[in-house]
C-alpha cells in the first residue's frame, strides 16, 4: 500500500504526517453479494477474507485483511463472492480502478480472466489486475494477457535472523547506531497491548506534528492508515512492539504473520531526535515478535529514492514481485 518518505539509510523507518480523522462506521451487513454485485469491505468480512487468503497463500504484503482495512480511506475496497472465493475491487478516485487477484477461487486463472473482462467492460481499458503474484501472472501471460512487473511495488524480503543478528561488516553501521543509542539512553522494549497501545497512538500524533511540514498526500494517507490501525487494534490480530526511552514511548513497530514462514512489518516509527532509535526498534521488534519466522517482508519503496536506499541498506535476500495484468490480445 502507500508508504511515506524515508529517513537516511542508517536511520531506518518510513514517514507520514497530519490531521485527525473521525472514525469510520463499519458496515453492519454480513452477506457478501455475488459477483458482479459489490459492496464496501466490512469489519464483519474479516473471517471470510482470512479464509480466502488461507486458500491462496502468498507473500504479497498488501494482501492481508488488516492491510486492506486500515488503508481503506485511501484505497476503498469493494467485495464480492466469485467462484468460491472473493473478488476485491479498489477504486480510490485518484488512480485507475483495479482489482486484486481473486482470493480462494478454485481456478485462480479462470476467475482472474472473468474478473478482468468484467473490469474492462465496466471501467474501460485502463482497468487492470494489480498485486498479482508471479505464478498467476505467468499463467495469464501464457493465455494472452499483457503482464508487467511493477518494480516500485515489489516487496523487500530479508532473512529475519540477519536483521536480528546484524552480523558482519555490512551491518557494522547499524550496530554502531544501536550502541550509540543504548549508551545515551535507558531503552526498554514493551509489547503493544492495553495502555502501551494508547501511548503509542499518542506518540504517533506527536510524531505527525514533527512532520507537519512534510504533509503531502502519501504522508497523509499513511497517517490515516496508522490511526485506523490503532482504532481497530484489538480486532485485527496484529503484533506490535514499542521502545520506551528514558521513561516515555518514543518508537513502535507493527506487523503480522503473512504465512507460516514469513511475517510482514507494516509500520515503524521512531523519534528522529534519538539517533539510532530506528535501528533499535527494528531489531528488537523482530527479535521479540517474529524470531520464529524465516523471512520478514518490509514492503515496497514506491519508487522513492530515499526509501529505496534505506531498504537496500538492510541487504534484502530477495524481492517479491507484484505484477500488473491488463489488455493484450486476450482483452
What can be said about this structure in brief?
This protein is 35% helix and 21% strand.
Number of individual domains: 2
Computed Rg: 20 Å
Describe the largest sheet.
Answer: 7 strands, mixed
Shape: globular
pLDDT average, as an integer?
91
Give the helix level as a range of percent. 25-40%
Distance between the termini: 26 Å
Helix/strand/pairing category: alpha+beta
Ordered list of secondary-structure elements with their pairings:
Layout lengths: L38 E2 L5 H9 L10 H6 L6 E6 L2 E6 L7 E2 L8 H16 L4 E5 L1 H9 L3 E4 L5 E5 H6 L6 H13 L2 E5 L3 H16 L6 H15 L1 H4 L2 E7 L2 E10 L4 E9 L6 H13 L5 E3 L7 H8 L5 E3 L2 E4 L5
Parallel strand pairs: 4-5, 11-12
Antiparallel strand pairs: 1-2, 2-3, 3-4, 5-14, 6-14, 7-12, 7-13, 8-9, 9-10, 10-11
Amino acid at each position: 500500500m502507500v508508504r511515506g518518505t524515508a529517513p537516511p539509510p542508517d536511520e531506518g523507518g518510513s514517514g507520514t504526517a497530519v490531521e485527525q480523522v473521525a472514525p469510520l462506521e463499519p458496515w453492519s451487513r454480513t452477506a457478501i453479494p455475488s459477483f458482479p454485485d459489490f459492496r464496501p469491505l466490512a469489519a464483519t468480512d474479516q473471517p471470510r477474507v482470512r479464509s480466502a487468503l488461507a486458500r491462496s497463500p502468498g507473500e504479497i504484503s498488501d494482501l492481508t485483511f488488516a492491510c486492506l482495512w486500515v488503508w481503506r480511506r485511501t484505497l476503498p475496497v469493494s467485495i464480492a463472492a466469485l467462484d468460491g472465493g472473493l473478488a476485491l475491487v479498489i477504486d480510490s478516485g485518484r488512480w485507475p480502478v483495479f482489482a486484486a487477484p481473486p482470493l480462494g477461487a478454485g481456478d485462480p486463472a479462470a476467475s482472474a480472466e472473468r474478473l478482468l473482462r468484467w473490469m474492462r467492460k465496466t471501467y474501460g481499458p485502463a482497468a487492470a489486475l494489480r498485486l498479482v503474484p508471479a505464478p498467476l501472472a505467468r499463467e495469464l501471460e501464457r493465455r494472452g494477457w499483457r503482464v508487467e512487473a511493477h518494480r516500485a511495488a515489489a516487496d523487500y524480503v530479508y532473512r529475519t535472523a540477519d536483521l536480528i543478528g546484524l552480523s558482519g561488516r555490512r551491518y557494522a553501521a547499524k550496530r554502531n547506531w544501536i550502541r550509540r543509542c543504548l549508551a545515551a539512553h535507558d531503552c526498554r522494549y514493551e509489547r503493544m497491548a492495553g495502555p502501551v497501545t494508547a501511548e503509542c497512538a499518542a506518540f504517533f500524533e506527536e510524531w505527525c506534528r514533527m512532520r507537519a511540514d512534510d504533509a503531502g498526500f502519501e504522508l497523509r494517507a499513511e497517517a490515516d492508515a496508522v490511526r485506523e490501525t490503532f482504532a481497530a487494534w484489538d480486532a485485527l490480530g496484529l503484533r506490535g512492539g514499542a521502545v520506551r526511552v528514558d521513561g516515555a514511548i518514543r518508537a513502535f513497530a507493527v506487523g503480522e504473520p503473512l504465512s507460516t514462514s514469513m511475517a510482514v512489518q507494516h509500520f515503524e516509527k521512531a523519534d528522529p531526535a534519538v539517533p539510532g532509535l530506528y535501528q533499535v526498534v527494528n531489531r528488537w521488534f523482530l527479535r521479540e515478535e517474529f524470531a520464529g519466522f524465516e523471512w520478514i517482508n518490509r514492503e515496497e519503496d514506491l519508487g522513492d529514492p530515499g526509501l529505496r536506499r534505506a531498504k537496500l541498506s538492510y541487504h534484502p535476500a530477495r524481492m517479491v514481485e507484484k505484477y500488473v495484468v491488463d489488455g493484450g490480445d486476450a482483452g
